[in-house]
Design brief:
The chain is an alpha/beta fold and 430 residues long. Helices cover 36% and strands 31% of the residues. It has a 6-stranded mixed beta sheet, with helices on both faces. A 5-stranded antiparallel beta sheet has the order 11-12-9-14-15. Helix 1 runs parallel beside helix 6, helix 7 runs antiparallel to helix 10 and helix 8 runs antiparallel to helix 9. The longest helix has 24 residues. The chain starts with a strand and ends in a 5-residue tail after the last helix. 44% of the residues are buried.
């Protein structure tokens, strides 16, 4: 596990004699050697309610089949199908133990209503039967609709996913089409420490399952947390990324990052206000370098021999007010993309209120912000083109469609949690 710090600063526009210090923490992991690959214990929980009939269900079955075919012979997988009833099609087994697994999967047929909670609970129970403390234990839930049978309360479902994560079972959610509840599924995945995906078009299904499997195979660490401990002369202003957070008794902010993938680093971008005259500790005034924050990174990391150990890295951050304003290209790039993500969030809120013009205007303001930034052209151009296309589409339609909302919401959630590679797969190109 490797860590890097990038820092930039500028005088505070609101507080005389203070500076805003913007800190980007990057955490990178390495995938264990192939002979010590992380074992997988998965449960595929597939919605077969009536709304999944036809092309949806067939596309999902083919994608799930391809995922199963790519698993290692020693990986375990179970398959659950649900409508108003929940059926275990395949108990946890390896491919050698269940040669008929593919046939069972492809034989799923559509049924009635959507007992989402029942399907997830059964998937969790099956995963629990072969829980591997040194492996990845995950429920992958796929649905195209709303939870309308069983437990339908969002906070309760998120709580269940959080409790499962405490027991080392994570949750990934996959939404299909325009009818599912994106806030519920993202909330479950967020609480459950897994990913969340959106299949906008049926041709995307294979790519989504491939992306999930590639992520699982590249996991370098789990239960990654970052503890933010501001020093006496500094105050935490904002954390730009959006991770589950809690404030500890001593005032330390603990961020739950979740899994660390070798293919994509974990990141935390935060602003601190540092007083440089008359601050909390006057004896710091004559010092050149001011202590800003202590960042403590902890994670369960896979070792070269296939073991799992808890590691801790402490990173002090200092700031020299005599150095003047400083910028860093990586900090600027991440900050600009997160600002664009926040514009997507605000556009969704406006669209929900029926303010389509306001939503389009917000997206175009984000286009201008990206254009005026120092972000490289190859990164800025696709972002600007996508935001402009969405603004134009909404104006032409006179509304924010369900597809538009899901697209904006999904990209905002992905970017706010540092999942840039997943965000690049989901592109509005029509």
């Amino acid at each position: 596990m490797k860590t890097s710090l990038f820092v930039q600063s500028h005088p505070s526009p609101d507080l005389a004699g203070a500076h805003v210090v913007r800190v980007l923490l990057r955490i990178e992991g390495e995938t264990p050697a192939r002979e010590h690959r992380v074992p997988l214990n998965l449960s595929l929980v597939l919605d077969r309610s009536g709304s999944m009939s036809g092309g949806k269900l067939e596309a999902v079955k083919r994608a799930a089949r391809d995922l199963v075919r790519r698993l290692h012979p020693d990986d375990r997988v179970s398959v659950v199908a649900f409508d108003d009833a929940v059926v275990t099609l395949a108990p946890p087994s390896t491919s050698a133990q269940r040669p008929d697994l593919i046939d069972q999967l492809m034989g799923i047929y559509p049924g009635g209503t959507t007992n989402l909670s029942g399907g997830w609970l059964q998937g969790r129970a099956l995963t629990q039967t072969h829980l591997d403390p040194k492996g990845v234990n995950r429920v992958i839930l796929l649905t195209d609709g709303l939870a309308n049978v069983g437990i339908t309360d969002g906070p309760r479902l998120r709580q269940l996913c959080s409790q499962a994560l405490e027991g080392r079972i994570s949750t990934t959610t996959v939404g299909v089409g325009a009818g599912y509840d994106e806030e519920l599924l993202f909330g479950m995945a967020d609480a459950g420490g897994g990913g969340s995906h959106y299949i906008e078009r049926l041709t995307d299904a294979g790519g989504v399952f491939e992306e999930e499997l590639e992520g699982l195979l590249s996991i370098a660490a789990q239960n990654l947390t970052v503890r933010v401990q501001p020093r006496d002369a500094a105050e935490l202003s904002v954390v730009h990324h959006s991770y589950p957070a809690r404030t500890e008794a001593d005032g330390t902010l603990s961020l739950a990052i979740g899994d660390l993938y070798a293919r994509e680093p974990g990141e935390v971008l935060a602003d601190f206000v540092v007083r440089t005259n008359g601050g909390a500790q006057l004896d710091l005034i004559d010092q050149a370098a001011r202590p800003v924050v202590d960042l403590v990174v902890e994670a369960d990391v896979w070792t070269e021999d296939g073991g799992l150990e808890r590691r801790r890295i402490s990173l002090p951050v200092t700031f020299d007010p005599e150095a003047g304003a400083e910028t860093h290209p990586e900090v600027e790039r991440v900050y600009t993309l997160l600002r664009a993500a926040d514009a997507r969030r605000r556009a969704v809120e406006m669209g929900d209120r029926g303010d389509v013009k306001g939503a389009a205007r917000t997206l175009r303001e984000a286009v201008a912000g990206v254009a005026n930034s120092s972000v490289a052209r190859d990164v800025a151009a696709p972002e600007m083109d996508e935001l402009e296309l969405l603004a134009s589409q909404m104006e032409a339609q006179g509304e924010m469609t369900a597809e538009d909302r899901k697209f904006l919401y999904t990209k905002q959630q992905m970017y706010s949690k540092g999942r840039r590679s997943a965000g690049r797969r989901l592109r509005r190109d029509r």
